[in-house]
Every structure is written in structure tokens, then in C-alpha cells.
Fold:
Amino acid sequence: MKIYDSKTAPNPRRVRIFLAEKGVTVPYQEVDIGKAENRSAEFRKKNPLGVLPVLELDDGTCIAESVAICRYFEETHPQPPLMGVDARDRAIVEMWQRRMEFEILIPITQVFRNTHAFFKGRIPQVPEYGEVCRTAAEQRLAWLDEVLADREFIAGPRYTIADITALCGIDFGRVTGIRIQAEQRNLARWHAAVSGRPSAKA
Ligand SMILES: N[C@@H](CCC(=O)N[C@@H](CS)C(=O)NCC(=O)O)C(=O)O
Structure:
């Protein structure tokens, strides 16, 4: 088993943090996005979409999509639970995980993809769309600050995959100048706590 990884990209980081929280060690193979190794015909046999991360099992099965990879390890290594503990909790965690992905991580990565020089010439960029995504992401951070007023973690009292997705999205925002604002004290408190966990260095 191995994971095709990129040390600088936010989605692969989600999986690394998830595995660090589980205490699971899987060999990583770095794929150089800068050299477009992820778009090679060879890599597309593993993931036709040409994106990272990808988990390759010993039988050759390739599983892409960060949450699908996390689901595999949640099932094979249930402790500590990071995707909910019963039917109600699993639904709540999934609700927050999806919100963090669709409302925070994706807009922030779209700012990067549409405005940053890294992707110039690699993909069709629409800078105006990037700026729309920047405004949306900033509004969502203000909302998340309110959400965190009455709870320790995003989905409630326990650290979950929703925290991992939000952390990876928010940290990646720094590349394009999206930051937690001084007045967003709940968000800053949460960010300090989740960044202080050893897994955040994974
Ligand atoms: N929905 C996918 C997104 C994967 C994705 O977009 N990965 C990015 C890195 S964060 C990538 O490989 N980008 C390389 C490229 O677009 O060339 C997931 O959850 O894993």
C-alpha cells in the first residue's frame, strides 16, 4: 500500500493529518505537481483526473478523493473515530465536512487556481472568478467564527475530519492572502488549538 502525495498541496495534507491522528503509517510517494507528473499518462492510469492524493492498495486498486481515502482508514482503523460515532453523529460530521469542503476549501483553492502564477498556462484562468471565490471564502470565514462561538470543534465537542478539511483550506489561503481576521477570535482560538496538535505537522 502507498499514497501518492504532494507536500505543498492542501488535499493530500488532509489525508496525512487524518492518518497522523489515527497513528497509521503508510509510505508516501511524492508526485511533483510543478513538473506536472500528476498529469502524465502513467499517473492517469491511477487517477484519470490527474490529481492528488491517491491511495494504491496492495492489490493495485487505486482510490482517489481525499474523503474516500479517509473513509477507507476510518473503516480499517476505527480508533480514534474521526467521522462520527453513531448514526446521528456521523451525519452531523458529514454535514460539517461537506460544508468545510464546499464553502471553505474549494473557494480557497479556486482563488489559487484562477489568480496565481503557478497555474498560468496550465489551466484556463478566470481571475474575476477567483476574486468572487475570495469574497465567498472571506464571508465563510466570518460565518465559521460565529459557528465556533459555542463549540470547541467544528462538528461539536470532538475533533473530526471537518476540522482537518477546514484547517487545510484556511492554511492554504495564506498563499493568496486569505487570513483569519483579528476580530475573528473564535476562529483564531480554534485554529491555534488544531494547529497545535502534532498531526498538523504531517
Ligand atoms: N476532490 C479531490 C481534489 C484533489 C485535488 O484537486 N488535488 C490537487 C492538489 S490539492 C491537485 O492534485 N492538483 C494538481 C493539478 O490540478 O494539476 C480530493 O478531495 O482529493
